[in-house]
Design brief:
InterPro entries: 4Fe4S_Fe-S-bd, 4Fe4S_Fe_S_CS, QueG, QueG_DUF1730. By secondary structure, the protein is of the alpha+beta class. It is about 35% helix and about 10% strand. Helix 1 (about 5-15) packs antiparallel against helix 4 (about 100-120), helix 8 (about 220-225) crosses helix 12 and helix 12 (about 290-305) runs parallel beside helix 14. It starts with a helix and ends in a 6-residue tail after the last helix.
């Protein structure tokens, strides 16, 4: 059996497991120039693997790797949730079951299939390894880089989770897809914080998706822009024309189970460990832990301007966790200044 036939067999098995997108690329190193440039400009989030060489060199993860299989799974559910007063806003990526778990289970089956059929070693990563998933997906033809730095597929838009399998098999690579964004710049205009400093350039330190998972005290201007968001930000994806016609997922695991995603702000702010685990632990929003989500819920209370939260906020002023007490102080000031007709604090 030649490599083209093996590639087709792997692709068909991946589709049978439920993957929506499958692409192939070599295990050669990626160009690290843009990462070094972003590091120099201070645009990295600090959540990434610190060693840039590990991020762009697949064989530092599997030294015998010859190919990478890029995989995509849509999370675009056919249900739309309208933000409601007094409720948290949560990214679609965290509506249902944690995609790391969903994709890992699927990818493990694919790895076992490859090992059984072709007697080669393979390893998988789903936002868990050092490699830049988007670089892999782009080079494997899964989609193009959008101006919002997301990978966009013509059928599924950017509502896709990404992962990859490094394998000792040598398989014919697919070709990258050039950007089809054209003159559209809706994502740049819509970004709440101006984190998209130019087409294809993201300052992660300004991005609300990154800030909602950062620990500790957030800058006041970031707090102000978070609105009701407690996890993630979908703004640049929601305005994308490709996403408005994107296919829906067929994965029931990504359909939210009540009370997700409509969680009252007071429930977020006051949740104990038990409530956190019941609502968030099984989703991708749970990885950072209870305190960060609580802090974001307290910030959202301030952005609501609703005086009914004053008593709750006052109870957190002397909290031993700096991020919580700072958020409570800021939110109290914001609500009181609005009540006094002074506008934003």
């Amino acid at each position: 059996m030649d490599s083209v036939e093996i590639k087709d067999e792997i692709k068909n098995f991946a589709y049978s497991l439920g993957f929506d997108l499958v692409g192939f690329t070599t295990a050669e190193a990626f160009n690290a120039e843009i990462l070094y440039q972003r590091k120099a400009e201070g645009y990295l989030s600090g959540l990434e693997e610190k060693d840039i060489k590990k991020r762009v060199t697949p064989r530092l993860s599997l030294n015998t790797a010859k190919s990478i299989i890029a995989l995509g799974l849509s999370y675009n559910i056919p249900i739309k949730y309208v933000p409601q007063r007094g409720y948290a806003i949560i990214s679609r990526s965290a509506y249902g079951k944690d995609y790391h778990k969903v994709m890992s289970d699927m990818m493990l089956k694919l790895v076992k299939y490859i090992e059984k059929m072709y007697n080669v070693k393979s390893i998988y990563m789903v936002d868990t390894g050092p490699l830049v998933d988007r670089m892999v997906a782009y080079r494997a033809g899964i989609g193009w880089y959008g101006k919002n730095c997301s990978i966009i597929n013509d059928e599924y838009g950017s509502w896709i989770f990404l992962g990859e399998i490094l394998t000792e098999l040598e398989l014919p690579p697919d070709s990258p897809v050039e950007s089809r964004c054209g003159d559209c710049d809706l994502c740049l205009k819509a970004c709440p914080t101006g984190a998209l400093v130019s087409p294809y350039t993201l300052n992660a330190n300004r991005c609300l998706s990154y800030n909602t998972v950062k620990k500790g005290i957030l800058p006041d201007d970031i707090k102000d822009k978070m609105g009701m968001r407690i996890y993630g930000c979908d703004t640049c994806q929601e305005v994308c024309p490709v996403n408005k016609r994107a296919k829906y997922t067929n994965k029931n695991e990504f359909i939210p189970q009540p009370p997700m995603p409509l969680i009252p702000l007071e429930d977020v702010a006051k949740m104990d460990k038990k409530i956190f685990e019941e609502i968030f632990k099984h989703t991708s929003a749970g990885w950072r832990g209870k305190t960060t989500l609580q802090r974001n819920g307290i910030i959202a209370m301030g952005n609501s301007g609703d005086s009914r939260y004053l008593e709750i906020l006052e109870s957190f002023l002397n909290d031993s966790r700096p991020g919580i007490s700072d958020a409570a102080r800021w939110s109290l000031e914001k609500i009181r200044s609005r009540a006094n007709g002074q506008g934003n604090s």
